[in-house]
Structures are given as C-alpha cells and as structure tokens.
Amino acid sequence: MFRLENAQSLVGLAVILLICWTVSENRRRFPWKLAIGAIAIQALLVLALFGLPVLRAALAGVGQAVDGLATSTQTGVAFVFGFLAGTPNQPYPLTDPGSLFVFGFRVLPVILVVCALAALLWHWRILRWVTQGFGIVFEKTMGLRGAPALATAATVFMGQVEGPIFIRSYLPSLSRSELFLLIAVGMACVSGSTMVAYATILNDVLPNAAAHVLAASIISAPAGVLLARIIIPRDPATEQPQDLDPAAAKGYDSSVDALIKGTSDGLAIVLNIAATLIVFVALVAMVNGVLGLFPDIAGGPPSVERGLGALFAPLAWSLGIPWADAPAAGALLGVKLVLTEFTAFIRMGEIPLGEITERTRVIMTYALCGFANIASVGINVAGYTVLVPERRAEVMGMVWKAMMAGFLATCLTAAVVGAMPSQLFGQ
Fold first, then answer.
1. Closest alpha carbon to 323 in 294, 359, 352, 291
2. Which pairs with CB-CB distance under 8 Å and at least 24 residues apart come from 342-345?
3. pLDDT tens profile 193-207
4. What is the pLDDT of residues 244-258, one digit of tens each?
5. Are 166 and 183 in contact (CB under 8 A)?
6. What DSSP designation does 294 have?
7. Sign of the torsion angle spanned by Cα atoms 135, 139, 142, 148
8. Among 229, 238, 218, 183, CA closest to 34
9. Most confident of 80-84, 139-143, 406-410
10. Cα 14 from Cα 245, distance rounded (Å)
11. Spatial contact of 31 and 40, defined as CB atoms under 8 Å apart
12. Where are the domains of the chain?
C-alpha cells in the first residue's frame, strides 16, 4: 500500500535530480529518457528481487551463504590468532561479550577470502560470464557503448578501480563523459568483497542484511550512470570507434594461481581499508577534541558527527526517513562521506534496536552502500594515474564531481527503495 512516507521519498528523487542538473556542464541536454528509464529499471529491480518468490528465495540463499562464509572465515582466523579472534573459549572471564566483535578479526579477513574466491570464479569463467551478461544489459538498456558497459558491470562486482582494469586499453580513447561515468559509477557501487563485510557488520541489527547489501550495489549502478550523464552529458561527436575484445581482460595460469593472486590482492585491499580507517578516525577524534574546548550547543558538546547530522538531516528526511530519525541518519551520511562507508556501517550497527525504525535501517543501508567518500578521491586519482597516466589532469578535474555523483546515486537508490511499499521488505 502506498503511504505518505512513500510520497516523501519522491521528494528525495526530485531534489537529487535538481542538484545534479544545477551543476551540469550542459543544462540544456538533460537526458529525460535515461532518467525515466534508469529510475524505472531501479524500481523494477527492487520489485523483482523482493517481490518475486524465486528471486526472494535466492536472496535469502545469499544471506545463508554469507553467514556460512563468515563462519568458515572465523575458523581460519581462530586458527591463526586463537582467542583474539573472539572464540567462545576465552582464557579470562568475560564481562562484556559484545567486545568479542573486533573489526580487524571479524570483518577484514572476510575480504581476503572473498577476493580469493572471486579470482577463482573469474578463472573458472563463471564471474566473467556474469560480468559480460550485465555489460550487455547496461549496453542495451542504458545506451552505453561496449567498453564502458563492460567496465560498469565489472565495477559492480570487482570495485571502483578494479572494474576499469578490464578495459584498460580502451581508457585513453573514452570520451570525457564516458571517463566521468566510470569514476562516478565506481563511487556509487561497492566491490563483492566489501558487500560481504557490510552484511557481516549489519547481520545482528538488520534482517536479511546480505540481500539488501547485494541489491544496493546492483541497483545503484543505473543511478550512477544517470547522474553522471546529467552532470556531464554524452556527446557522440567526441566518441571514438571501439572494437571490444572481452578476452583481453586479465587471467590466471591455474586455479592455485588465482587463489594466490586473489589473496594477495585482498591483502592489499585489507591493508588499505585498515590504514584509511585508522587515519580518518584519528583525524576526526582530533577535531572533536578541539571542538570539545567550546561550550555545549543544544545540550551537548559540539562534534563532527553532530554537525554532519544537522547538515544532512534534511536530505535524509527527503529519502523517506521519519524526522525523528533524520539527525541520526544525517550523521551516518556525513560519516560515510568523511570517514568512509565502513565507519558509517559500524556506527549504524552500534545503534540499538528500537532507537531507530527498521525502515530507517533499510533505507540507510542503500544510502550508505557506495564508495563515495573523500578517501576514494585519492584512490581514484592514484588508480587512474596508473591505468591512464596521460589523462591524469582530466581525472583530477572531475573526480570531486564524480564523488558527489556517487554519493547522490546511493541516495537516489535509497529514495527509490523508500518509495516502494514497506510490505515488500517485510516491515
């Protein structure tokens, strides 16, 4: 049943499109057909994934697979780190069982295992076929050309820099609009490894968390394409001919080689995530320490989180979130932008049940599920400098706009989900 709260989410749709149109490089070329088509595709995907019994059962199976993967990973972690991994058999009496959840031992190792499995599935051509299939869908439904369509599909599963690797030889010839699109979509989605990590974090506070996280990354890709096309519209006159060869993508010598290289790649990702979280959390703590020297404001000490909550609360409300939850939701949006989505998911996982509504948790899962944050700006500049060094200056000139597009793309996805009947998600 369509309710007032669903209509509230339509406000978010309009606001996000208006913001992107305002900063567009050519406001006269608003892609009306793409806007209608992309939002319709998102709505249909949500209805199909959560409304059709077969797909709903498949998503439930994904949740069970994630639980099994997390359990198996913990077995390996416990073998290496013993009781430090949070095993039930502790050498000291437990006064706070909740403290057994240590991010470095419960979440980061999952990324290692998933990266290794992804490399193995790519070597076995299973993930390659899935990626190429999604690429064809993006090409036919959203008007993308072969190379950007394949990279967009790969980004959904592999990550913001890893996806473009598959079309590395085509990057120099992409138009400005296509290059911007790849960066924006990369920030609107997440990688397969981090999907599992997010689901692990939210597992105790959000029913069917894995299904929502998986759906969020897939559904945000059309939103990223749409907002990128609004900000930098397509100009066919600048597009060079392409002869796409999917076989040019990277490969492995054997299954063992895939597992070893996948683990090595995963280790680099884990170290990058851990280092980024340490630095950014420390910097915010330093700022909060300085702000704590000032008098209380509105009954509490000033802090980065409170400031971000006030700034983004109206945007959170426009996505369909009750106003009572809007300050907390706005703070999560701000934390995601400044401290990465990992920190935002951890913060949401720490909010006790009943303090915010289940509807708020569902909508915010979609709003937070993307790589659009300040740290990703550096990651993209560094990545594209290696992939296409001759276009570094061009990437530098558009990466901040791409971050905004990616951030708003996940919010657009959240608004689409908010506009759907709550019964669809079992609320």
1. 359
2. 342/107, 342/194, 342/197, 342/198, 342/201, 342/273, 342/277, 343/277, 343/280, 343/281, 344/368, 345/198, 345/201, 345/202
3. 677 778 888 888 888
4. 554 445 578 888 988
5. no
6. S
7. positive
8. 229
9. 406-410
10. 39
11. no
12. 4-88+100-238+252-425
Cα–Cα distance measured from residue 70 to residue 63, given in angstroms and rounded to the nearest whole number: 11
What contacts 380, CB < 8 A, 6 or more positions away? Answer: 160, 161, 183, 186, 187, 395, 399, 402
Q: How many whole angstroms separate alpha carbon 325 and alpha carbon 210?
A: 23
Q: Which two tokens stand for residue 98?
A: 């909740």
Tokens in use for 339? 């401290």
Three-state SS string over 308-319 comes to HHHHHHHHHHHC
Residue 283 makes CB contacts below 8 A (sequence gap 6+) with: none
**Span 256-269, pLDDT tens digits:** 988 888 888 778 77
Amino acid at 207: P
More confident residue, 420 or 70: 420
**Position 152, amino acid:** T
Q: How many other C-beta atoms can be found within 10 angstroms of the C-beta atom of residue 383?
A: 20
Residue with tokens 């289940």: 358
Q: What gap in Å lies between CA 138 and CA 130, rounded to an integer?
A: 12
CA angle, 406 then 412 then 415, to 5°:
150
Amino acid letter for position 41: I
72-129, pLDDT tens digit by residue?
A: 887 887 778 777 766 666 666 656 555 556 667 766 787 778 778 878 887 888 877 7
Q: Which DSSP symbol is given to 99?
A: G
Local confidence band at 2 (pLDDT 50, 70, 90 cut-offs): low
- Identify whether the C-beta of residue 366 lies closer than 8 Å to the C-beta of residue 417: yes
